[in-house]
Amino acid sequence: MILIINCGSSSLKYQLYNPDLTEVVAKGLIARIGENGSYAEHFVGQERLVMRRAIPDHKVGFDVMVDNLLHSELAVIEGPQAITAIGHRAVHGGDIFVESTLVDETVMEQLHACARFAPLHNPCNIAGIEECLRRFPGVPNVVVFDTAFHQSVPREAHVYALPYELYSQWGIRRYGFHGTSCRYVSQAAADILNRPLEDLSMVICHLGNGVTLDAVKAGRSVDTSIGFGTFCGIPMGTRSGDFDPAIIFHLVKERGMSVEEVEALCYEKSGLLGVSGVSNDMREVMERAEAGDDRCALAVDIFVYQIKKTVGAYAAAMDGLDALVFTAGIGENSKEIRSRVCAGLGVLGVRIDERLNSMVRNGHPNISAADMRVATLVVPTDEERMIALDTYRLVSDSIRFPAPITSFAPTYAERV
Questions:
Q1: Every domain of the chain and the residues it spans
Q2: Helices assigned H by DSSP within 322-377
Q3: Catalytic residue from among 63, 146, 214, 371
Q4: Which cofactor(s) are needed, names only (predicted)?
Q5: More confident residue, 147 or 409
Q6: What is the topology classification, in CATH, of domain 2-145+382-415?
Q7: 208 is in an annotated binding site
């Protein structure tokens, strides 16, 4: 069986696939790691196990995951020996990793070297790999990089207008993130539209606690909103999004903040949390905004405005737009955010049917109004499946697996 690990900054998602990837045998989410209200959900078919307990770190999260897989009533494996390959998500591969790769000692050293590029994420990704190496000795591990999909972004879009030596000698450039999600969703969108991916120009809106907007033309990333680090672009749960870097100099020189304090401010105290003063959870922020909280309303307004502005820019960069695609937690679940983003994009050929916008969970991924030039879709992301396909590809020479099923367009029934 193939175990897929998606170890985020405050979460651990996992899926266990049968060898030909036709079935998710079990899956789970361990959420709010290191926060108040942490909990675990574990699914085997229609059976659901929920546990609410303190989960102070990712090591304890892995304990919970393994206990769930071996659960006396919902057991799906007899022991660790049932796991034959493990795939991992990694956020940042720098210039070192341009494609998915098998883990060995050298790769682990290089992963640690890349950790400074994504301090909120890469250490968690590395911790997940190290836990698996310890718990499942001898099992091959594959790491799949969010940055790899964006290697096709052209130089004029990924080189900053800084002294060129910073790029050529130090690798300071736009890298982009959530590439595994964008790669999966772009192909799934083409499948839904029954059109070749090579014929489509689309903007993928990966909207969650982390946010990426990606311009995908003919299946290749041509621009992306997050850059060198993971806090620029669109405001996120706790990350700032774009702002004038002169503010950093001001905070250090005039306000006496240390570089470490400014870094924590940008990554952990900004975005929805920073503006609203309430929460990094869009659901809570929107509830408070609807109840009349002005700062929460402003946080939502900023979020929506920055998305709309970026969609327009990417449509221009691609000489037109065929599809606008929403995915990830907010993109898949918030009809209000989808409606507000699409309002005013009629100039691009985007207009949605509000009735369909309320029905996506009933099997209506296309929420476009009739006769619109641009298709507007809601596509559940499945980073784990994309990682599973890459893992299969890299380990199949050494392990006898049957041929995988490679559909990229799961039904909503499969995702609920």
A1: 2-145+382-415, 195-378
A2: 328-333, 335-342, 354-357
A3: 146
A4: Mg(2+); Mn(2+)
A5: 147
A6: Nucleotidyltransferase; domain 5 (3.30.420)
A7: yes
